[in-house]
Request: fold
Amino acid sequence: METTNTVQSSPAWGTLLGKIGFNPAGILCVFLLMALPFIPPFNQEYLLRWLIYAAFIATLSVGFDFTSGYINIVNFGYAAVAGYGGYTSALLAVNLNISPWIGIFIGGANAAVLGLIIGMISLRLRGIFAACLSWFFGLALMGLATKLVWLTRGPLGLRTPRMFETESNIPFYYLIIVLLILTYVICKMVVNSKMGLAFKAIGQNMDAARTSGINPVFYRVFNFTLSCALAGILGGFYGHYYGILTPEVMHTTKTVEVLAVAYIGGRGSLWGGAVVAFPFIFLMEIIRSTLSHLPGLNLVIYALMLILVMIYYPGGFSHFFDVHIRQSKNKILRILTGNA
Amino acid sequence: AGKSIAVGVLGPFTGPSAQTGEEFKASVQMAMEAIDYTVGDYKIDVVWVDSQSDPAKAAGAYAEAVEGKGIQAGVLNWHSSVAISVMDVAAQYKVPHMFGFGASEVVNQKWQADPEKYSYWGGKGWPVPAKLEKNYVEALNNAVKAGIWTPKKKIAAIYGEDTDWGRSAGGSYKKALEASGWEIFAEEYFPATQTDFYPLLSKFKKAGVSAVMGTSTSPAALTSFVKQFSEVGLKSVLVASGLGWIGDWYKMTGPASDYVLDSIPQLTTPEAQQWAKDVKAKVGFNPSPSAGGLSYDGIRMFIKILNRTYEKYSVLDKESIHKVMVEEVNTGQLTYGKKDGAIIMNEYKYTPETMPDMVVSSDAYFFPILQYKAGKGSIIFPDVWKVKEFEPKK
Amino acid sequence: MIVLETQNLTKQFGGLTAVNAVSMTINQGDIVGLIGPNGAGKTTFVNAISGLNPPTSGKVTFFGEDTTGLTPEQMCKKGLSRTFQIPSPFPKMTAIESVMTASIFGNAPGVVKDPVQHSREMLDFVEFPMAEDVLSEQLNTVQLKRLDLARALASHPKLLFMDEMASGLSEGELSDIMRILDKISRKGISILMIEHIMQLIMAVCNRLLCIQFGTKIAEGPTQEVANDPRVTKAYLGSAD
Amino acid sequence: MSDNLKDKIAWMKSAKGITILGSIFLALFATINSGPYVLVNTIITGGMLALVSTGLTLMLGVLNIAMFAHGEFFMIGSLSAYYVFTPISNYTAMHPDSFLVTWGPMVAIFTSMVVGAIAGIIAEFLVFRPLRKRAAENWVMNSFLLTVGLSVLLVNLHQLIFGADFKGIVRYWGGMPFSFADVFISRDRVISFCLSAFIVFLFWAFMTYTRTGRAIRAVSQDATGAQIVGINIETIVLMTISLSCALAGVAGGSLLFMYPSYPTMGLEPLYMAWFVVILSGLGNILGAVAGAFMVALLKVVTVEYVGAGWDFVVPSILIMLILIFKPSGIFGSEVRGVLDT
Amino acid sequence: MLLEIKELDAGYGYLQILRKVSLNVDKGEYVCIVGPNGAGKSTTMKTIAGLISPMAGSITFNGEEITGLPAYQITQKGIAFVSEEMNLFVNMSVQENLLMGAYIIRDKNVQKERLEFVFDLFPRLAERKTQLAGTMSGGERKMLAIGRGMMSDPTLMLVDEPSFGLAPQLTASVFESLEVLRKTGVTIMLVEQNVTTTLSITDRGYVLENGKVGLEGKSSDLLNDAYVKKVFLGV
Ligand SMILES: Nc1ncnc2c1ncn2[C@@H]1O[C@H](COP(=O)(O)OP(=O)(O)OP(=O)(O)O)[C@@H](O)[C@H]1O
Ligand SMILES: Nc1ncnc2c1ncn2[C@@H]1O[C@H](COP(=O)(O)OP(=O)(O)OP(=O)(O)O)[C@@H](O)[C@H]1O
Ligand SMILES: CC(C)C[C@H](N)C(=O)O
Ligand SMILES: [Mg+2]
Ligand SMILES: [Mg+2]
Reply:
C-alpha cells in the first residue's frame, strides 16, 4: 500500500493515489479485501469474523504506528484509549439512546481529548518514560472503568446495541475495511505532508528539531490527538460489534497484540502492520483450532515468531518488502510497487 | 456406521482462568469416556473452543467451531462477558448451547430481551448470584436468633474480587444484611490477582466488624485472604464463599480456614467421591465441586439431552437438539438429578418462569452453607441438611 | 544596528554558576569569536540565549525585542540559528531531509517555495562532501558538523551561532571553512562562533569575547582582545 | 553553618526532598490517624516491592532492556520453590523435629534464586545474545519486544508443561504470628521481609563497592568505554541478566506463601516493579528501594482511605503527576541515556 | 618491535576502509598518523584496540599475535585507547571514571598512585572529583578521557585526536602531558589533525589516505615534504 520513503521522490504513477499512500500493489490489496467475502473459503461467516478481528487489529496498528513509528513514543495505553472511546459511545447509546453511528464519532472525539491530555502531560518525557506514562495512564483508565460501577457497570459488563441488526457479518466487515482504509489514508496524508517531517524530526532528535524551528508541543500533541481519536472510533466499533464492553478491552495485553502486529509489520511504514495483521491473525487462529487439545501452544508459537522476527528481521515486513521486492530487478514487481 | 456429531465445549483453556478450563476438560473427558463417546449410533466428536477469556476471540473461535468443525451443539462457558458475545453467534448459526456458567445479570437481561432469538442459549449452569448468596445472611441471623452467636456490633464488611461475579455476590450480601438490620462498614472489591490483604484486613479489624463476607473465584486471592485474615488476628465471622470451589484449597490455607463459612455443594454421594478420585488420578489435582463438579453434571445432563433427542427424532443435529431443549428442557420436563447420577445438585431443572436460570431450591439447585474445621466442612444451613450448629470463632 | 544584546546573563546549575552576569552585544555584520578555556561556560551561554537551557537571570534582546526565556523554536522563527558542539543529527533521516526540516519550519516558512531545491542549495553552499541521500547515522563527526551547518543556514537566520565548527579539521581544511564563513557573512548573516583554533579566529573574526569561569574578561576588536594580558594568561596560555 | 542550612533548604525544595518529606508526613499522618498497622504494613509491603524492583532496575539501567518478562522470572522462582518445598513440607509433617522445619524454607528460597539465575542465563544465550550480535541499533525497542515475546512464551510453556492449576503452600514457617502494638504479622512475612532487606542490602553493596559491581555500572553507561578499560562485556552482561533474574526468582520464591504459582501470576509484580522503577528513576538501586517504600505507602494509604482496588488507580495517577514535574523520576539522573531517546 | 601491523584490512560490516595498512612502532617511540578526514585513522586505532575485528592481516604486540582478540584482552596486554568519542561513563563521577580506567589493576595502592599521577597532570580533574562526567564541558571530558587512559599504566597508548575541542592552553598542556608520559617510558601512537604541531612533537609519522599508507618517515622529514605541505598545510 505504501509508496515513498522520502518526501522528495514523488511517485511516478497517479499523484492523487500517491498522495493518499497507495501504489498499484496497494490498490490490489484493497480490491482483494473488498472481494474477499465472496471468494471461497472466505465467504464463510467464521472466517469473516476472523477477518473482522484482523482488520480491527490492523486498523489499530496503523494508528499505533502513527505515533510509535514517527514521533517515536510507544503509546502503551493505546488499547485503553480505544476502550475509552468504546465506552463513551456505548454509554451514549445505552443512556441517551444515541445511535451508535453518531456515538462512535463522539467516542472518537472524546478519545481525542484524552489524546490531547496524554500528549500534554507526556511532553517533557522521552522514550521509555513517555511510554510508561501512557501505560500508567492506560492502567488508571482501566482502573476507573472497573471501579466506576455506577457508570460503566465495571466488570459486570456493559451491553451495547450492535450497529447492524443483522446476523450476517458482511456489513460489519465492510465497515471495518472502510475504517481501515480511511485510517490509513488520513495517517498517510498527514505523514506525507510537511507534518510527517516534523514528526520524524522530533522523534529522532528533539533538540535539533526545536532549533530548526519545529514546535514539538504542537506536533506531539497533534499526533497523540489524532491517533487517539482513531483509536476511540475503533473502540466504538468493537463495542457495537461484539455487543459487550468490559474493562478487559483496555488491558495491556490488548496493546501488546497491536504492538506485535505493528512491529512485525515494520515500524514507521503505517502499511506494514495493516498488511501483516491478516495472515498473522489467521495463522494464529488456525494453529489454535487445529491444536486445540494443547491449549497455549498457539501462543507459544506466536511468541516464538515474535522473538524470531525481532532477532532476525527487526525491520519487520515493510523493511523486507522495501529491500527484497521494491528494489528487486523484477520489472513486474517494480511496476506493482510504483517504482518503475 | 460413520454417523457422528461434533459438540463444542467452550471454556477458558488458556489465559488467566485456565485452571477452570482444565477442570472443564477433565470433566468432559470423563463423562464422555463413560459413554465411550457414543450416543445411539452417533459418535461424539468433542471440539475444544478456547474463549481465552476474551469476548472477541471467543466469538471468533465459536463461529469457527460451527463452520469449520461443524459443531451441532455446545456446552459450558465460564465468563459472563463471553456469554454475551457468544450468545449472538449461537443465535446466528442456530446452534443450541447449554449450561454456560456466565452467571451475572447482564446475561439474563440480554436473554430476556429476546427469548426467541436466544432460545439457542439454553439454560445457564449457574443462576444469578443473588439467588444463592443471601443464604449466608440467613444462616448467620438464625445463629443470632438461636443465641449461639452474639456479635459485638452488628457491623459487617463485604469484600470480593472485582469481577461480575464478585460484585453481584457482594451486592446480594449487602441487600440481605441491610434488610436484617446490619450496618455495612465497607464494600471492597479488589482485582482477582491481588494477594496482599493486610491493609484491608487491618482496616476491618480496626473498625471492629463482626462479620466479613465475600467471595472470589481466584484461588490465589481467596486463600491469601483466608490466611491473612487469621494472621492479623481478626476475631469476626468470615464468609469465604467459593473457598471450597478450589480443589486444593486446604493445601493452601491450612488451619487458617477453621471456622470459615462457605457454601459449597458437598461431594456426599459415593459417585461424587469416586469421581473426585478419578479426576485426581487423571489430571493430578483435586477437582473443585463448582467448576469441575458442576461441569461434570452439566455435560452429563447434556448427554441425557442427546439421548433423549436421539430417542425422539433418531437424528442428532442442531435442529433436533434445539427442539428438545425448547420443548422438554426449558419446560421442566426433562431434568437431571441424583437419580440420574448427578454428583452435585439434587436436580437441575429449568422452567419458563426461571429461564435462563434453573430452579433454585433445596431440593433442586442449592448450595448449602457449611463451616470448616481442620479442612472438613459440616453443613450448618439449611436446617433440613444441618449436621452441626454454627460455631463462632473463639 | 544591534542584532543581539545580553545584559547580566546568568546561568546556574545547582550551586555552580556556569555563566555569570555576562553582558555583550553583536552588531549587524559582525563575526564575533567567543573564546575561553574549556568549561568556561561558552556553550552554556549560547544555550541560554538560543533557548535550549533558559537563563537563570538576566536579559536577552534580539533586534530590540526582549527574547529572554523564549524556546529554541521561537528563537529560530525570530531568526536565530545554531549548530551544536557535539553533533546532534536526525539519525534515521537522509542529509537532505535533515536540512529540509529547517527550510520548511525555519524562519521563512513562506519564502522557500521548493524546500527540496533549497535544501540542495544549502548542502552545496556548505560544500557537503557526501551524497544528499546518505543517512545521517553513517556520517563522521566532521561531516555531521557540515550537515548541521547546512541545517542551521536553511532556516534563513539573521544571526548564526556556531559551536566549534572547525574542531577536527586539519590546517588545509581550515581554508574551506573560512571560505564558507565568508560566504555566510556576505549573505548579511551575523555570526557568533565558539572556537578554539586561534588561527581561524584571528583570520575571520572582527570582534572577540573572552569568558573565563563564566565571567566576561574581555570584549572588543580581535587584535585588542587577543593581546589582552588577561586573555593570554587565561586562555592562550604558554602556547602563544 | 548557614551554608549547611542553605543546602538543606535546597534539598527540601528539590523533587527528592519534597517527595521524601511528603511521604514521611503522609506516613506519620496515616499512622496517627488510623493506627500503627499502616506503618507496619507499609514497611513489610515495601520490602517485598524492593526485591522485585531492584532486579528490574538492573535490567533497565544496565542493559537498557525494558523488561516485560520480569514477572515470568518471578513465576519461575515461585514454581521452583513450590516443587522443592512441597516434598520438604511433607517430610517435616512426619518429622516435626527435623532441622528442615527451620531450614527447609531457606532451601526452597535459595533454589528459587538459583533457578532464576539459570533461567536468566538461558534467556541470555537463546534470546538476548543473538539479538545483540545481529543488530545493535534500535536495541531498546527491539529488546523490549523480545521480552514481550519471552513473557508470552514462558506463560504458555508453564501452562503446557505444569498445567494451569494454582500451586501454593500453606506457609513456610509455622508458629504464632509476631505481634507488636496490637498489629499481628505472620512469621513468613517478617522473615521474608528480613530476607529481602538482606538481599537488597547485599546487592547494593555488591554494586557499589565491588569491582564487578562497578564494572556492571560502567557497561550500563558506555559499552565501548567499558571494553576500552578492560572489561569483558559479554561476561558482565551475562552476569547482570542472571543477577536480575535471580532477584526476580528469589522474590517469587520467598513470596510463595502469598502468591501461589500459576501461569499468569507475573503481571501483578511486573506492574508494581515498573511503578517503582519509573517513579524512582532508572538504574538507581537505593532510589528503587526508596521508591518501593513510597509505592507501598501509596497502596496502603489508598486502601485505607479510598478503598480496595483503587490501589492501582490512585498510585498510578500520582506517579504520573510526579513524572510530569520530574521527568526522569525522583532519583533519576539528569543526564540522558539511551532509554530516553 | 613493540607493535607490528602487517597488511591490515578492516572496516564496518561489508564496507572496507583500510586496505593493506602496515605500520610498526618501536618501544619508547612517539609515532603519529596524520591524514585527511575519513582516511581511516580512527579505524586503524579501533582495530588495534580490538573494537573492530580485522578482515585480514595481522597485528603483533610485544611479539605476541593479538589479531582479533576482544578489546578487554588487548587492554590487559598493556594497550590503552583514548577514543575520539571519549566513551566516558557519563553517570559516574570523575573519580569513579578514573578508577574504572584502572580496572585491570587490582592493587588498591597502585590504583591510588595512578590516581594521584593523573590528578597532578590535570588539576581540573582533581577539582571536579565528584562531578558527574556527563555534566562536564567538552574539553573537560577530553581531559578525563586521557586521564582514564593513563590509569591502566599502559605500555602503548593510542590517542585519537586529543586536541579535538580543546582550548589552546589545554591543547598545549595535553601535548605536554603526553610528553611527560613518554618520558616515563610509555610508547605513544597519536592521531591528530593539527599536522604542524603533531609532526613537530613526534618522532616518526605515517600519512594515511583513503585507507592506505601514503607516506611514512621521520616527522621532521614529513613536515618538509612538498606533498604534505601542499595537501595538509594548504601552503
Ligand atoms: N547540566 C549541567 N549540570 C551541571 N554542570 C554543568 C551542566 N552543563 C554544564 N555544566 C558545567 O558548566 C560549565 C560550563 O560548561 P560549558 O559546556 O558551557 O563549557 P564550554 O565553555 O562550552 O567548554 P568547552 O570549550 O569545553 O566546550 C562546565 O564546568 C560544566 O561542567
Ligand atoms: N560506524 C561506522 N559505520 C560505517 N562507516 C563508518 C563508521 N565509522 C566510520 N565510518 C566511515 O569510515 C571512514 C573512515 O572513518 P575514520 O573515522 O576512520 O576516519 P578518520 O581518518 O578518523 O577521520 P576524522 O579525521 O574525521 O576523524 C569514513 O568514511 C566514515 O564515514
Ligand atoms: C462463579 C462463576 C460461575 C461466575 C462466572 N465467572 C461469571 O462470569 O459469571
Ligand atoms: Mg562548549
Ligand atoms: Mg577519526
Q: What stands out?
A: Chain C touches chain D through two residues (CB under 8 Å). The two ends of chain C are 35 Å apart (CA to CA). The pocket of magnesium ion (ligand 4) is lined by residues C 42-43, 85; E 137-138 (CB under 6 Å). The beta strands of chain C are 2-13, 16-27, 31-35, 57-62, 65-66, 80-82, 159-163, 190-194, 207-212, 215-221.
